[in-house]
Amino acid sequence: LPVMQFAASSELRQKLYQAYVTRASDQADAQFAELDNGKLIQEILQLRQEEAKLLGYQNFAEVSVATKMADSPAKVIAFLRDLSMRARPFAEKDLQDMRQFAAEHLNLQNPQAWDWPYIGEKLKEARYSFSEQEVKQYFTAPKVLQGLFKIIETLFEVSIRPDTAPVWHPAVGFYRIERNGQLVGQFYLDPPARAGKRGGAWMDDVRSRWLRPDNGQLQTPVAHLVCNFAQGVDGNPALLTHDDVITLFHEFGHGLHHMLTQVNERDVSGISGVEWDAVELPSQFMENFCWEWPVIKHMTAHVKTGEPLPKELFDKMVAAKNFQSGLQTLRQIEFALLDMLLHSEHKPQDDFMPLLHKVRSEVAVIHPPEFNRMAHTFSHIFAGGYAAGYYSYKWAEVLSADAYAAFEETAQPDGSPSLETGRRYRQAILEAGGSRPALDSFIAFRGREPSINALLKHQGMSSN
Questions:
Q1: 3-state class of 219 per DSSP?
Q2: For the purposes of burial, counting CB atoms within 10 Å of the CB of 109, is it exposed (0-12), middle (13-18) or buried (19 or more)?
Q3: What is the DSSP string of 21-57?
Q4: 168 φ, ψ to 5°?
Q5: Which helix (H) or strand (E) holds 207?
Q6: Annotated catalytic residue: which of 62, 251, 287, 431?
Q7: At what angle do helices 116-127 and 73-105 cross, to 10 degrees?
Q8: CA triplet 402, 300, 411: central angle to 5 degrees?
Q9: Degrees, nearest 5: CA angle 396-399-404
Q10: Is the dihedral of CA 106, 108, 111, 114 positive or negative?
Q11: CA gap 364, 378 in Å, rounded
Q12: Which of the four pLDDT bands, split at 50, 70 and 90, describes residue 291?
């Protein structure tokens, strides 16, 4: 992706693009013919269809949604097509803007598939001239953590305090969460990158809340939250990018879901038993606070001067947040719709390429060349856990945006969130864990079923 975004040579971009989108397919170089995934995909689809029949379902999509929040494959397909229709005008505007910019500033009159990422990057630079490095100077790790804890303590009526426990590295912290002096949960926090540490960021449970049948004691939950942020240099505190801050809030959302539960049955307390397409709701919900000025201004301090992030710089960040959100939405819908149709309407013994072309003609505004074989490397659904479930990414965004909209609707005059809304969210969603269907928890909080309107507004695709 960085080559596609920044390499000035269109010839180089074309060469890399063609190699990348034809790998593991019948369009790759002859020397790699044995690596064609086409037959493997057909075999996987046939075996999944066979599994569905053995389990008494019509197709594998029905098997997948049986344990998810969605009612049926048809409901998922309808959701994706509705979102596609709403996002399309914005995607067409995104494409028009890129065509115009390419012609006027890059001397590209007829852009090809390998040109779009480069054009998009140049347009973004021209529109929003700020540096990630400039922003980073304001997000010192201690100040960010202080701000995060303050939001959690205020919204969810708890206190977070350092605690003691054996740790696996000196950089690891251990904390306890209390409410009214009572222990609710504890967590390990391991933020910095270091040699030998697994990459990425995640939350996982150490133990779950559980009223133990063997001794009658209540076991309180413990989580670990792990990130890989750059360490501080020259005696300065660690500096986080804004993306790092979002990642930290995201993982803490998962952690709160696990630790604030009030369910005493281990297998459905916290994150346990929560449907796959709803488990990202609390994590993506927390990300929204990273785009609120009343929150950001209190969790930033320049590493040298101590000054908060300037409002003008924050406004540029917000403006860039939804850059090309129409195109990005349609791209995700293309993947999700292909996934769901492959596992519902498609006959596994048939060639799947015609279905891919059909989905693209329905959804996409940028049409890739004929040789593009995206499906052959769609590892999420063929080698991961997202078969007939790729839509979960978008559905979780709908849930989190709609949940956060409740806080926007009830915000105080100064923009701070309503404590009553925070209490309702904690009780209806975080405390309930997997003890009831996620839809019931959402309705208990919102008073209705989810709507996609908040997502469209948050991503700049709403006229309101």
A1: strand
A2: exposed
A3: HTTTSTTS-GGGGGG--HHHHHHHHHHHHHHHHHTT-
A4: -90, -5
A5: strand 202-207
A6: 251
A7: 70
A8: 30
A9: 125
A10: negative
A11: 17
A12: very high
List, for residues 275-285, the tens digit of each pLDDT value: 988 999 999 99
Q: Which residues pair with 218 in a beta bridge?
A: 211
Structural tokens at position 360: 């693209």
- Could you tell me whether strands 222-229 and 202-207 are parallel, antiparallel, or unpaired per DSSP bridges? antiparallel
Determine the length of the chain.
464
8 A C-beta contact, residue 343 and residue 387:
yes
Amino acid at 201: A
Helix (H) or strand (E) holding 259: helix 242-259
* Residue where the block lists tokens 């990300």: 287
> Contact at 8 Å (CB) between 407 and 393?
no
Q: How far is CA 435 from the centre of its chain?
A: 24
Q: Residue 407 corresponds to which amino acid?
A: F
Give the tokens for residue 299: 């969790």
Q: pTM to 2 decimals? A: 0.88
pLDDT in tens, 333-386: 999 999 999 999 999 999 999 999 999 999 999 999 999 999 999 999 999 889
Bridge partners of 432? none
Q: Which two tokens stand for residue 311?
A: 């409002």
11 is catalytic: no
